[in-house]
From TrEMBL:
Cellular component GO terms held in the UniProt record: chloride channel complex; plasma membrane
Name of protein: Bestrophin homolog
Localization annotation: Cell membrane; Membrane
Function: Forms chloride channels.
Species assigned in the record: Seriola dumerili (Greater amberjack)
Keyword RNA-binding: no
Length: 360
């Protein structure tokens, strides 16, 4: 489930971000603790069992490569930035039916059963298309709808399933319900349910925007960040800390090795480096595909439930379901203000912003 902490950082306060450090679910600690324990275990193994002259010479040799100038471990920051932009792009590409359902509700007319059937079927086709694409890219949705028969129980009719399966294509057919939508909208225009060509064009424009987002999700899933990019970053981070396992060992101070005048036993700064660099790599691993089942992956099944519910409410229950039109509370007042509660009354004392150079 997506971990939200928005309310906790609504206001800037002392120790605001610090409190977030003690959360476990969705935290970097949960992602990293296994790798961290393995690194500490291997480091301790070398520290306890291999304190010999040959090993010390090897440690000195490896230590010269633990400088980030030799191994470009900072490259992981650019990788995470790229992965984040990809993550945000996938989020903004999620097909939400809100605009489409408003257009359907306002332009497909008829309070009778036929009108209701047209509006509900149009939105069902739109939601069906998003479910088909999501079950192709999201493990959560695929587990919920492992076969088309499971989709029939929720979205499709048996006749629609036959039509869907009868059309042979070597490619993903998530677009088929949207084609049904366009054909049904054209039929509604012929029947006069859509009253003019402008309204039909508006329907088609919103449908194409919706289809475009479904297509984007498919292509995000198809075209990944180049594998060589991911491999180079992973090798850079792991090889850096492989050298650190030996090169960062504390050697006998009595032998006078350079920069080894004190034996601290616990490599504090090396562990911090491991936490930061490997943590960034784990962040990249987490957000590179947000359609899995990690703590911060997208709640795709919940979004499906939300989309189908609000779609049907908008085009069915709310169709022409208007409250009586009456004069508003400030009908007779030329100048009026909206009331404030006591806790927000101080905001009325602040002058309205009129521009940065208004008082020059």
């Amino acid at each position: 489930m997506t971990v939200s902490y928005t309310l906790e950082v609504a206001d800037v306060r002392f120790g605001g971000f610090s409190k977030l450090l003690f959360r476990w679910k969705g935290s970097i600690y949960r992602l990293l603790y296994k790798d961290f324990l393995v690194f500490c275990g291997v480091y301790l193994f070398f520290s306890v069992f291999y304190q010999q002259d040959l090993f010390e010479r090897i440690a000195l040799y490896c230590d010269q490569f633990t400088n980030t100038n030799f191994i470009p471990v900072l490259f992981v920051l650019f990788y995470v930035s790229l992965a984040f932009n990809r993550w945000w792009g996938q989020y903004t590409s999620f097909p939400l039916p809100d605009n489409l359902m408003m257009v359907v509700s306002g332009n497909v007319h008829g309070a009778d059963e036929r009108g209701r059937l047209l509006r509900r079927t149009l939105m069902r086709y739109a939601n069906l298309s998003s479910v088909l694409i999501l079950r192709s890219i999201s493990t959560r949705v695929h587990k919920r709808f492992p076969t088309l028969e499971h989709i029939v129980e929720a979205f499709m009719t048996t006749h629609e399933l036959k039509n869907f399966e009868s059309l042979h294509s070597d490619f993903n057919k998530y677009w088929m319900p949207l084609t049904w939508f366009s054909n049904l909208a054209a039929r509604a225009r012929e029947e006069g349910r859509v009253r003019d060509d402008i309204a039909l064009r508006l329907l088609m424009d919103e449908l194409n925007k919706y289809r475009g987002k479904c297509s984007l999700l498919f292509h995000y899933d198809w075209i990944s960040i180049p594998l060589v990019y991911t491999q180079v970053v992973t090798i850079a981070v792991y090889s850096f800390f492989a050298f650190c396992l030996i090169g960062r060992q504390f050697l006998n101070p009595e032998k006078g090795y350079k920069d080894h005048k004190l034996d601290m036993y616990v490599p504090v700064f090396t562990l911090l480096q491991f936490f930061f660099y490997t943590g960034w790599l784990k962040v990249g691993e987490l957000i590179i595909n947000p359609f899995g089942e990690d703590d911060d992956d997208f709640e795709t099944n919940q979004l499906i439930d939300r989309n189908i519910q609000v779609s049907m409410l908008a085009v069915d229950d709310m169709y022409q379901n208007l409250a009586p039109i009456v004069k508003d509370k400030h009908w007779a007042q030329r100048h009026f203000s909206i009331p404030y509660t006591l806790s927000t009354a101080a905001e009325t004392l602040k002058p309205a912003f009129k521009g940065s150079t208004f008082d020059m």
